[in-house]
Every structure is written in C-alpha cells, then in structure tokens.
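Objective 1.3, modelling of assemblies. Example input:
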Amino acid sequence: MKKINTSPISGAQELLPEQQATFNNLKNKIGEVYHAHGFLSIETPTIDRTEILFAKAGGDTEKQVYKVVKTAEAADEADQALRFDHTVPLARYVVEHESNLTFPFKVTQIGRNFRGERAQKGRFREFYQCDVDVIGRGNLPLAYDADIITTLLDAFEKFELGTPVLPRINNRKILNGLLMELGLNSQAGEVFDIIDHAEKVPPETTKANLEAAGLNKNEITKIVAFANLHGSREFVVKNLKSLGIKDELYNEGVDELDTVLGLIEAQGYQPEADMKIVRGLDYYTGTVFEFVLPEHREIGSVCGGGRYENLTGNFTEQLMPGVGGSIGLTRLFYVLNESGLIKDKMIKPLDYVIVPISENETEFAFETAGKLRAKGYKVDVNLTDKKLGDKLTYAAKIAKSGIVIGEDEVKSGALKAKDFETGETTELKI
Amino acid sequence: MKKINTSPISGAQELLPEQQATFNNLKNKIGEVYHAHGFLSIETPTIDRTEILFAKAGGDTEKQVYKVVKTAEAADEADQALRFDHTVPLARYVVEHESNLTFPFKVTQIGRNFRGERAQKGRFREFYQCDVDVIGRGNLPLAYDADIITTLLDAFEKFELGTPVLPRINNRKILNGLLMELGLNSQAGEVFDIIDHAEKVPPETTKANLEAAGLNKNEITKIVAFANLHGSREFVVKNLKSLGIKDELYNEGVDELDTVLGLIEAQGYQPEADMKIVRGLDYYTGTVFEFVLPEHREIGSVCGGGRYENLTGNFTEQLMPGVGGSIGLTRLFYVLNESGLIKDKMIKPLDYVIVPISENETEFAFETAGKLRAKGYKVDVNLTDKKLGDKLTYAAKIAKSGIVIGEDEVKSGALKAKDFETGETTELKI
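Predicted structure (tokens):
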C-alpha cells in the first residue's frame, strides 16, 4: 500500500480531544461574554469575491490571500478567495443588509479566517478570530469605544488565567496631531510604522529608523519621549496637555482618550494610556488598543482593535463609523499553552462513562445514561465486549468518573461513581 | 463611486441577526446532545491536501471540490483543496493521531464544508454539517449503530419542531445478499442507485430503469416488492425471513437490522425498517438510515448515515470500522423555514436593552447591566444621543424587554422592565 502522509497541512492547529475541549471552553466563554454585552451574532461566508476582499486591502494582505478555484459546476464570472479577516466581509454585510439592521449595530463574528503566511512557530494559516464590532450610521458615540474594550476585558476575566491582563490604550489622533504640529505629516506613515515596531527592536534601532525617515535630532528626541509616555489616565493626560501642542486634532485625541479611559475606569478596570500603541492597520482613525499579560510580556499582544471612521467607504456613500476588537483565539490558545497558563486547566471532555459488565446490563445502562443526561451531564456508555479493566482505562482517559453496572446494580438500583482523579467512590443519586 | 456588488456569493446562506440566533440555537442544541451522549469534539482544518481528499472520492465529488491556490508565502509542494465533508478528514485524523486516541473513538465534528454544486434553490456551496461518528480499532460492536441513531433522534427531539421525526433504517447486506441469491451481483451498483432514487420518480420509471439495467420481469417484480417492504421491526423481519433466501450475507443483514432496531426501541423510539433506504455512497457496508418528517415528506431526508467497515483503508492497514451520521444544518434550517416549522420560534437575540435617558445615567446603566449579566442575561446599553422613542424602537427590535433609566430611577434604584411582546411592565429585582 502506498503510504499517504496523514498530517494536517502546515500552519493548521489540529488538536486532540482533550485539548479541543479546553479550546472550545475558551471559545464558548468568549461567545457568552460577547452575547451578555449585547452583541448579536452573524456569520459571513468563508468564500467571498476578490472584488470585495481586495477593495481596501493591499500589499502584504493581498499576497497572503488564498484564491479559490471554482469548479465547472459552480462557475460564475467573479474571482473568489477565502476571507482573511472578519472586518471586510462585515463591511459588505452592513451595506448589503443595511435596511434590515438596527443601528448602532453591535455585532460579533466568531470563525475561521485564512492567511497564507510564511510557515513559522505560532503562526497559523487557518485560525479562529473572535470579533466584536459596533457600526453606527452617520455617527457613533465615543462611549462605544469603551463598550468594546470592557467587553473584551470581561472575556479575559472569564478565562481565569490567574495572571493580570492590562489594556494599553491610545488614540491615533494624538500622534497624527503631534506630527502635524512638527510639520512631519508627510512622514506620518513611516513614523507610525516605526513606533508600532518599537517594542520589538532595541531603542537605538528605533532612533536610527526615525533618522532614516528624515527626522532631525530634535524631532527624534521629541518623538521618542512622546512614545515612551505611558501610565494612568491622569498622569498621561496631564503630560500630554503640558506639551503645549496647539494642533486641534491632537487636543481632540487627548480629550477622546481621557473620555474613553474614564468610562472604562467607571466599570472597575485600570487601563493604561500608552503612546506606543498605534496599531499597524491604516483604517484605524481614533482609539486604538492592545491587551498584554504584564507577567508574560513574551507573549506580546493577546487582543487588539480600534476605531475606524469609514469602514464601508468602498461600498457605499453612507458614512458608517465603527469600532471593534478581536481575540485571535488560535494563536492565543497556542501561546497560553506554551506559557503554561492553561496546562493544569485541561478539561476531561465527559462527566461519566458507564461500563456495563455484560450485554445483560446494556438496557439498564442506557436508562441510567438517559437520566444523567437529563440532568445535564455528558455521558458515554461503553458498549464493547472488552475486559472490565480495559473499559475502565478507556473511561479514565475521557471522563471525570466511571460507573460500573453489573447484575447486583441492576437488581438493587444502587449505583456508585468513581472519581478517577481522587479515586473516591460516591453513591449516585438519580 | 464605482458600485460594488455587496451580495454574498451564490450558494451561501447569509442570515440576519434574528435568523442567525435561531440557527445558532439549533446548532448549539445539536452540540449539547452530541456531547451529552459522550461524543468528543474535534476540528479538522478546512483546507486539506487533495491527496487525502481524493483518496476515496471520485466522480461527482471530485468535480465539486474547490481547489485552493496557495500564496507565494505559503508555497509547498502538495495540492490543496477545501474539504467537502467531515468523513475523509476524520479518516486522516484517526490514522494520524491513533496512538493518542481512545477506542471506540466517539467523535463529533460541527463545521462548514464546501461543494461547488450547480446553483439551485436550497442547495448550498458552503454549508454546516453536524457529524457524529464512532470509530473502532479491529472491530466495533453493532450496538454503536443504535448509539449513533438514538443520539441523532435525541437531537431532533430537542429541536421541538412540533412534528414527528421518523427514522427509516435498513442494512445494505440485505439487498446485497438478495442480489447474490438472484445472481445479479454484477448489476448491484446500478440496482442500489435505482432504489436510492426510487422515491423521486414514478414507479414506472423505477421499473424501466431496472429493465434497462438488464433485469428480467420476474427479477424486477421481486426487487420492486422487496423495495416496497417497510414497517415495524417485527413485520419487516418476519417478511424478510419468510422469503426463504439462503444467502449468508442476506441473513446476517436481517439479524443485524433486527438487533439495531431492537436496541433503538429499548430506548423508547419507534423506528421503521425500510428497504428503500440504501444511501448513495459506496462506503456504507451495513446499517444505513435516513430520518424524515412524515407530515412534511416534501422536505425529504433531514439526516442520514450508516456503517462503513473500512473508512481508513487508504491510509493504514489497521482495520478501523466506523458508523456515523450527519445533520446537514444549513439545508435543514432552510427547509424548516420554508415549511414554516421554525417561523414562530424566531428568537430575540437579547434579553434586555437598557436605555439611559441622558449621559448622566450612563454609569448607573453600566452598573445595572453588569448585575443583569452576572445573572446570565444578555444585555445591551444604548449609548447613543438619539431620542427616547428611537432608542426604544431599537430596543424592541433586538431584545425581549427594555429598561429606561432616568434621574428618578438613579435616585430610587427602582427599575422597571417592559416586555415588548406583551406590553407588560414588571418591577426588576436585582
């Protein structure tokens, strides 16, 4: 027989059942929190027209898109590809269904996206993203920026990682305004990029990069000092105001940052203002944020997002400002595992495995399983003719407890469950 | 501005939030029932190597597969395509991870599959399938055939469709054995195909098709009479035994059918034995089944599956018999809607929308929302500066109840919730 390679494709995360149960648990918690905060669930197709997907994208993204070859039967004119994020299909969705939606449209998408990235540890080509967005029609109050961030913070709280989560928040108007004031608007793109990467390189490299972008020593000193500014709302806002910048956009940005942080604090969180957070994507226009685990800085950002004033600009003339954020769950699960943050939380997928000793007990085992399922338990009945010991080994691998049913148990109806972890046996009341 | 077509691709089901909530509710119920019956969740990648996907497939399936064009960055040698079902990736998964799995491996996969079918009402190119399978190593007791069927029946029960669900069950060994006895084994493929389609064409067409396959009048009469046999286990088994067929496979099939139906009856269901159920796919070797809604025959089969003795034959020499079934949820949701079976079950996605009258009440509204969320409710806070009436219209569209918070409410702490359906106002106790 010709040996076929049965490994999954490179860049896919294929989990064993116990790992999958833990992954699903995180995914379900995210969904529950999003719904609890009033976000409505939608799903967009995995396949979309390239005309849509490339309407805004460019450069790197376009290079990573998986195109789809249509079959003879499904032939139509448009080129198609796999979506690389939820944001572009969302823009299409709100324009397409606008008359049937309520605005502000608070929406969540949890699903797989696809990017043909270079193979690398911890990078995935097929991955889950768990997005929340609010889309307004005409305008969208700033309070929704805080709504997005506190929703995501609540999700991380429900993960119970046992390590703090720090939201680092900024507003792109501040740096944009500062660059205007310094007459550096033409270098804005480069400066944003350099600051976005500043934490991944030594400080000298950042200075060298700014010099290469054409900034003089004085400007570099100012930008570096600015980028290093971070801390509590009061501290950062005071410092930003003390710089004496007159630019209108700058001051609007500082006020917005102050307001958004204030609303987050009012809900019991301690966010940090951080001028180094600028986010790579062009479409962000105001608030931007990333979450980190301060005790595990090596992990990098675990969540990010921001405000985009004109998401749907390529599809409609109606102004539709939005704000959103995303948890990249496939990567998050991978890095949390690598850092040992969920190892001891591995979940046994089932509550009980019932082990009938012989075929005579099958019917009673079914009955017992039915009763336990009605109480919400996950229950398997082992129907094999293997030895009792083998059946219990099987049970211990996938379930928290095992229930052996023999002649005596059928007669008396008295059942005992053995907890595989503690070894304790308790009477089962059903 | 160039107008871009914002409709989803042809063959995709894109739902509005209220419809999506109903869809998700069905999907979650399926998952819960599968887990309750002891099936472990796994996910395989959407993209797989064509070498894997085409190992067993052929003909029509191959014509419908969407190939994926890799990007420059994700280049490797193997051709890749989107999976067209969960079964083939499952075969790859159990061979790849065999040493880390427990057998019998009870497994569920719920996810999207892709087939480039000709565009047609109610046919989808991207669709959810909700699969359950049990894979054995070496052998797999017949009782698991009943386990699969009762699990699927339990899922349909939880849907509360308000219309009965009938499991129609057969065993391919019976027809195979009959054809052997009649010396028609060389026409078996054609006869299976003709019987599989018999319900979609007039009886004369079926007879004509059998004649075209080379059967004589006597043989046709026998086959037609056989295919029309259906009813209770006792009735059908008695009739099958009374035909005096000596073929061993035939009698094995009858005994297996008897056993499987008996086990299903023991769990309180009334399945029907039905000789017309043969299933199109070649890989089924024993039990085959389909569910129908007898009061809505126009819908056709809503679920199907069967036993396959050698799923992994292309990947390993280890014999791994399996039995499985699948609910095609995207199509099911479509046909249930078309038949009016879930129209009045449309779910309001949220429990409450809180409407603060002015910005002064925002903080109190957040606090109230937090308390309600802690109780498990889905709660939105409307943060816009729209008129009260507009905010309530928004609330009524997406939530069961609305809570208005003004100065008085903040002072007194006494809150009232208005049920949008009944119009009743009740005091909120939190």
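Residues 37 and 151 of chain B are 6 Å apart (CA to CA).
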